[in-house]
Amino acid sequence: MVTKPDDLSEEGALPRADRKQVSRLKAVAALLTLFGVGLFIYFIYTVGVGEIIDNIRRFGFFGFAVILAIYFVRVLIRSLSWKLSVYEPYRLEMRDTVPAVLIGEALSSMIPLGIVISGTAKAVAVRRKVPLVVGLSSVATENLFYSVTTSVFLMLGAFTFLRTFDLDDGWILTIDLLIVGLLAAIALIVLLVLRQWHIASEACEWLYRRGILTRLLEAGRLQVRLFENLIFGYYRRHPSRVIPICLLNAAFHALGVLEVLFILSRITDTGATALNAFLLESVSRLISIVFKLIPFLIGVDEAGAQFVAETVGIGVGIGVTLALIRKGRILFWAMTGLAILISRGLSLRKIFGAMQN
């Protein structure tokens, strides 16, 4: 799609119509980030800087090196899962997917709109190996598997909370609604693939026929249809890969639990149990989905860890320290991904530009 220069934003990538939506997202992200910063300051003040520093010292440089290694294995798992989501005649190798995943994770963590562009960033990073639409569809295919396994993981966490602890009626209702919502999401994804429902392209056609976003959808609706066909074609051609990819994503979550268990084993004498680690990781995963607009999940991750830590009886200080240590790990790999992005001559302008074509 050709875009006239006078329709571009200051970044030279977004049409005026989309600029308003981006501006709204930026405003929401800014408010959420301020809220998160306030929570962060509150928890640091409540727990006390001295206690947090003591816990971090107990964790040590060796402990930090271990969780960096654990997360890199998780990156390898997501990279392999993505590699398996590309089918003939196209092919990606691990040397292609690993840097791209790190780039996507860096943008997702660092900027408020990272959730919008992280998938596109991955596809742009491998555009010399596969066409952009193939890269995008393979990322979406892998994300479907990830969404299903994540939903199952969150449901197990929610169910465990209900069966293990006495919670207020409000929390019980909230968790029940979460479980129902996750079941509905899984059912929708499964039916979407099995029945090959072209929901996205049909919605684009509906808007186009009514004169809405016609310029954007003139060619865009055809790209969306091709995008959907590539995803559905993957399931038809490689049904034997479904279980391996689901197992890889399950291993990704299991390593997250292992990371939490390892951190707890070094900063607490009594709270390092598999149950506590599982609950902390499941809540952290939920928060990372709901509050993705907040860079580095500042404040809200600490709030979730504090809630679980109080519930399981290991102390607020342990929960906040856990969140801070993991935030250090996120920062390290985000900087690594950013360095890869810069070294490849990529920029947000180019990624946003790819989203418009």
Tell me what you see in this structure.
The structure is a single chain. Helix content is 80%, strand content 0%. With 357 residues, it is mainly alpha-helical. It has one domain (10-195, 238-306, 327-356). Helix 3 (94-110) packs across helix 12 (316-343), helix 5 packs antiparallel against helix 6 (169-194) and helix 9 crosses helix 12 (316-343). The longest helix is centred in the first third of the chain and has 36 residues, at 49-84. The protein is globular.
Throw out a few tags for this protein:
13 helices, 357 residues, 0% strand
Oligomer: single chain
Largest sheet: none
- What is the number of helical segments per DSSP (H or I, 4+ residues)? 13
The tally of structural domains comes to: 1
Summarize the structure.
With 357 residues, the chain is an all-alpha fold. The chain has helices spanning 16-47, 49-84, 94-110, 114-125, 132-164, 169-194, 199-209, 214-237, 242-267, 274-290, 300-312, 316-343, 348-356. The protein starts with 15 loop residues before the first helix and ends with a helix.
Write the layout of secondary structure elements.
Elements: H1 16-47, H2 49-84, H3 94-110, H4 114-125, H5 132-164, H6 169-194, H7 199-209, H8 214-237, H9 242-267, H10 274-290, H11 300-312, H12 316-343, H13 348-356
